[in-house]
Write a structure and sequence with these properties.
About 50% of the residues lie in helices and about 15% in strands. It is α+β, with helices and mostly antiparallel strands and about 100 residues long.
């Protein structure tokens, strides 16, 4: 597939069509047009770091909520799911640990 490619030596984007026509797009024009294109698709231009930071924050929030879920022992004690077993130890066994 033919497409624009970054060319660092000319600080712009370059492509060649199948019929030998060359296209040059300046860095500034490319950024402006890319932003507009992404906005037309309901997206915003973000850096890799920006996207990864948002993903990491979402992961950390999920981990924290998961820890709260795991720590809610009352929930598990009262859960009626057949996959949850609550075993009452005898008084003698409780004193051993």
């Amino acid at each position: 597939m033919r497409r624009l490619r970054w060319n660092a030596s000319c600080h712009g984007w370059i492509a060649k069509t199948d019929n030998g026509v060359s296209i040059f797009v300046s860095e500034e024009t490319y950024e402006k047009r890319l932003r507009a294109y992404l906005e037309s698709k309901g997206m915003q231009l973000k850096t890799w770091e920006g996207i990864m930071r948002l993903a990491e924050e979402a992961w950390e929030r999920q981990c924290e909520v998961t820890r709260l879920f795991q720590a809610d022992l009352d929930y598990w004690l009262n859960c009626q799911d057949p996959g949850v077993k609550v075993i009452q130890q005898s008084q003698k066994e409780q004193g051993k640990g």
